[in-house]
Amino acid sequence: MCGIAGWIDYDGRAREGAATAAKMARSLEPRGPDAGGEWADDDAYLIHRRLIVVDPEGGAQPMASPDGDVILVYNGELYNTEDLRAPLLAKGHTFHGHSDTEVLLHAYCEWGAAAFEKLNGIYAFALWERSKRRLTLCRDRLGVKPLFYSRTADGVVFGSELKALLNHPQVRPVLGEDGLRSILLLGPARPPGFGVFENVSELLPGHFAVLTPEGWREQAYWKLEAREHEDDEAATVQRTHDLIADSAARQLVSDVPLCTFLSGGLDSSILSMLAAKEYRKQGRVLDTYSVDYQDNAEYFTQSLFQPNSDNEYIYRMRDFLGTHHHEVVLDNGALCAALLPATDARDLPGMADVDSSLLLFCREVKRDFTVVQSGECADELFGGYPWYHREEILFEDTFPWSRSVGLRLSLLAPDAVTRGEEFVREHYSATCRAADKLPSDSKKDARMREMFLLNLQWFMACLLDRKDRMSMYSGLEVRVPFCDHRIVEYAYNMPWSLKALHGREKGIVREAFSQELPPEIVDRKKSPYPKTFHPLYTQLTASYVRQIFKDENSIASSLFRHEAVEALMEQPESLSEPWYGQLMRTPQIFAYIIQMDRWFKKYGVTLK
């Protein structure tokens, strides 16, 4: 993977911004530690930082078309490179290397924007056409790779991360009312396409945007559409298996070492099994990685959201597959300290220690590997979360993973936000209305389409943000095979009775791989990414928040009712359900406040 950035300035002075470009490039070095490049003319300045995964010699960027007219900077991986190369060769194109970057560039030169719907992969890229003075930005269908932009008087500034934009003099870290509401009431999630800061947006997944001297337009090249599901049960099981297996196989291609994350859950076990099988054919042994916390076995607490710990299932899969397994055990003090660099990595207050733990985990994996496969997105697509299966939550008129707007408001200072509940409801309702449905859908199937889109555009988007930023902060590329648009389309139109086959979460996926995995793995109840249960972590975060609250200059401190937060410190077990997702309870509220304080201070954020 890589980092891209740049700007278009139609006043004809773009190439004069070398100093600005240097700062933007430095901010993206963690994403691309291996190489960098820049290209400029009077109107455009393009910046690239490279993490070398495929074709070290032939994939350098910015990359120019054979006639020098089209310049590309690209972050991502295509998983159908050879499927695209063949028709391009037939049309007379020639290639100097085997990189997907070169294939993407030639595909655009041949088909224009029509090329985008032919792509299978995770990507964000910018194409500058010199003769037409035209910039095209494009983002993958599911938003796995980020791409932010800010319109300016004479053009646009864009980049893979917010920090890149903030190093441009025309983009300032100003937080308006909607940005503050988002951070306090929806965070760590944020509305689709919302860049939090004033005048900053994120290109929507499955969209491309075109800028010319005449104006700006943004357009979808992909969207979820409701269709009749025509396969019977047996065909659905087989098709589900084939789609997942094909996606996983495509994403094993790499010129650098690759491993998998292994939690002992269904999703990571499937990917590790498929990778190990392919590696055995090549006479190789797969490396797998898991994460845990110091003394967690002593303090683990069973809950609806986390019914059991991972270790016995990890060891079962390790032995079953014969992998070379690595267990990373995190210290609770380091976990708390890493809340600060995790904020820097995301450029926003994030998922608290769910972020910081992944940051530390990826740092360890990067010591020996550059690419890893991970099981994200299966739960959103195939109904893996408890809120799909608890009727009292399923039809509740709110975000099912963040039902605690009242709790959040009770912790805030009286004048911190206005129209808070209305703001949250507007975003929730707009997403539900956007879910495409069929007249033949039952009430439950119609609701499941709404839940699918809610999870896809909000919860999954938040997890993909986390995975991209925390991994790329260490220059580690994480691939997510379940996030293939073909799987997403098939799952969206699968009736709930098939998706939850045998009355189980992800029942169709369990059945699809039941003959290739140990029964205890197939039958294991969903358990999320592990968190620390150690009381020391709660004590550390609470103590940190008390110090923040003593700081009269802290914006974060001024936004909260100190006595309400202190009451949580006195009774940390008082929350009956997570305030966000499955894991984020009382200590994660404290950690979120810590991240907010870091963010306001480090980024110089001002309130509008």
Structural features, described:
- Helices cover 41% and strands 16% of the residues.
- The chain has 608 residues and is an alpha/beta fold.
- The strands form four sheets. The protein has a six-stranded antiparallel β-sheet with strand order 2-3-1-9-8-11. It has a six-stranded antiparallel β-sheet with strand order 4-5-6-7-12-13, covered by helices on one side.
- The longest helix is centred in the last third of the chain and has 30 residues, at 443-472.
- The protein is globular, with a radius of gyration of 24 Å.
- It starts with a strand and ends with a strand.
- 53% of the residues are buried.
- The mean pLDDT is 95.
Keywords:
608 residues, globular, 6-stranded antiparallel beta sheet, 25 helices
Measured distance between first and last alpha carbons = 35 Å
Q: Report the portion of residues in β strands.
A: 15-25%
The backbone outline, from C-alpha atoms, is globular
Can you count the helices? 25
Bin the helical content.
40-55%
Derived from helix and strand composition plus strand pairing, the structural class reads: alpha/beta
Nearest-integer average pLDDT: 95
CA-based gyration radius: 24 Å
Strand arrangement across the biggest beta sheet: 2-3-1-9-8-11
List low-pLDDT spans: none
The number of E-state strands comes to: 19
Q: Main sheet?
A: 6 strands, antiparallel
Which helices and strands occur, and which strands form pairs?
Blueprint: E1 2-9, H1 18-27, E2 35-40, E3 44-50, E4 63-64, E5 70-78, H2 81-90, H3 100-111, E6 121-129, E7 134-139, E8 148-152, E9 155-159, H4 162-166, E10 174-175, H5 177-186, E11 201-202, E12 207-212, E13 215-220, H6 233-250, E14 258-261, H7 266-281, E15 287-293, H8 296-299, H9 311-321, E16 324-330, H10 332-337, H11 339-346, H12 353-365, E17 371-373, H13 378-382, H14 391-394, H15 405-411, H16 420-434, H17 443-472, E18 477-479, H18 485-492, H19 496-499, H20 507-512, H21 519-522, H22 535-549, H23 555-558, H24 562-570, H25 586-602, E19 606-607
